Amino acid sequence: MSEAEELLSTPAEWDLPAERHRHFKDVLMHRIDQDQTPAGRTGSPTPGRASGRASVRRRLARPAVLVPLASVALAGALLVTLSVDGRGGSTAASPSAGVTGASGTLNRIATAAMASDATPVRDDQFVYVRTLDRENTGTFTGPIRLGALHTEERWTAQDPGPLRITGWLKATGKDAIMPGQVIPVESPDPRPVGVDRPTYRWLASLPTDPDALLARLGKEARPVEGESRDQAVFSLIGDLISGTIMPPANAAAFYEAAAKLPGVREIPDAVDAAGRHGIAITLDDTGFATRDEWIFDKKTLVLLGARFYVTDPDRGITTETLAGTSAVMERAVVDKKAEVPARAVSR
Asked: pTM score, two decimals?
């Protein structure tokens, strides 16, 4: 039995060590293509929907992760069972603040992205991303507790054919999963390129007209229960801009598309996992349990990292609580797995 199958055959309430819990979460994010129902639950989830309220697709909490837009059946339980311990509340502005400025800021970010350099990536190469991360290390039913800052390095395969091993991961630090080991990121079945496995070539094939791109993303996004289509698209854009390298025109189009989403809001000051201050972009969806912030350098407008918040009054989480933070430290193109670049091509 694979780890993913083991995960899905386990009842909704587990008594797992924290390290095993986090490892299973990572396996789940990467390996499951469709929703399945864990033992002990009833009903057949619709593909792309969770039995709970929260999506596991909060990739900007860990931006280097290889785009995992799947596997929300179990993930709903992962997030909605969290409770608040009173620490880490958001200091974000009110929902009405920054709405007008967000679109303008995103268009400025798009202009900066268009002027940036991006190294073209060959099909036989890997995209390397190094991040600093802090994640929730609490139990499924316990309070949210942010763990120690640790480093994650990921190598994303660019081969255009369907792959079972889509990349490689190495984590180091106190709360890292299998620290120091380079481990494969696997799928039960060969996974084609697309939103679940974005390669440079696939990203380059997307529309650069923001309206056309937004229409495409609207079809690709898979909202979970309680999530609006706009929120799902916002999350999908976050997935695609965070752990990849793409042509400047495509990067610009993603930001221009995000600017057209109703509810995008600018936050004047936010801090990534490395302690760097920047401006943040978020999307307010008051009916959903989670909220992402994309953090950008105030001068260069380069993506720095992200913060991820959880709130769910139905579960007793009445105060928006920080549940994860990250910082993108390095992006580069390398020729083989586990190769560390001499220098980054971009942040």
From this structure: 0.74
